């Protein structure tokens, strides 16, 4: 068998290709950012053709740098930013519209109408999600309603939908020349269109959004030796590589962190934050504002579910300090600036740029910096930004405990922000439990590689994968209980100040 497994990680800010060996060690990678298209306030788009072009380049560059060819890869996995919606013509391969990104809030009226019409509870029960701008269903509907000719083409089965996993799988397997139109249950569970129990598209949910079934991909297990086909010769690989794994990126990180038992979970710190807790084969319905989602489905085994706390703005608040406020010149500088002060100086920043996701689900919220006095400096704002990442994580951790009854003993973390030592120390202080980061920080790509490798026997089972997990760093809580609870009470007060700010109809 070939020595390596490859994984494409198509994220919100960049696309990377990574190559892993049997020990789960990284042996090669390349990464490229793509343009964030911001046509108006609240709208966020990506160009699907640019994403496909970047995907080919990162694959070719990483493979060439290691002198590898298609036959060196036992399998290929895909993982992706979830919810982001592409609709394209399967005859021409051209997208009808830019990809509408998960952070985009243009569908707030569609979401609030669903609630007003009493459909919200059905969506919560069947799909495990509250009606919100975040998910794909409203985005597909927006394209059907606003782009000429798409509805008719969709009814003929010519205009098809996919998240970026499906878009890349279709292109990698031949595109207009017979590309495979497929997704997995972790991605499908983010559309508001899939029934969590049947793991299939649900006619009632489709009718709520008026979406023709013909435009939707087949849903196949996340790790599957048969359904996804192989890469074609004229693509970036110049030969066939079996495509055998597909997972949404946060579920992939959960797999990469080897959270295979109920009660095991992780928190990923990227553009946003996503805390997932494995609940086993049981569908746990949240009463505390979390999502119920599919965690993974491996081959013929029963699907495993998770509770998820999704936070829209965490690492992107650091980008905002850099790009809009310009008080830092790099993300890493946020740590240096925030370290210049001993505490937040009374300042709390709630970065509700896209409203508030879990556990609040308030699209009428907008960002606020509160508690300012003349004493405060840019260093307090930087510190409040890092604290906002940690307080938002505490909000979802509390909801997680309430829903699952599982008390967090230690938080496994990963993602771009976790290189920030101060932020991770603040996380331990604010949560009151240790925070632990693994040696392989690229858990998202690793999880997709694991799903692909399990399907072809490159790894025998999940026990073998557990052997690959090792801790690199642990942060212990330092604050007193009083300091922790006082800070959290202030945070909750600050959150209240952001609510009911915009009229969402
Ligand atoms: N040293 C740092 N301190 C704080 N945030 C950081 C640091 N380095 C990177 N980030 C943030 O991490 C995010 C990128 O993380 P990554 O895991 O690559 O995200 P994604 O998968 O969402 O594209 C960016 O939003 C960036 O601002
Ligand atoms: O691309 P990321 O890492 O920001 O992840 C985005 C999430 O999948 C959105 O649900």
UniProtKB/TrEMBL annotation:
It catalyses: glycerol + ATP = sn-glycerol 3-phosphate + ADP + H(+). Keywords: ATP-binding, Glycerol metabolism, Kinase, Nucleotide-binding, Transferase. Inhibited by fructose 1,6-bisphosphate (FBP). One of its GO terms (molecular function) is glycerol kinase activity. ATP binds at residues 12-14, 271, 315, 319, 416. Key enzyme in the regulation of glycerol uptake and metabolism. Catalyzes the phosphorylation of glycerol to yield sn-glycerol 3-phosphate. This is Glycerol kinase.
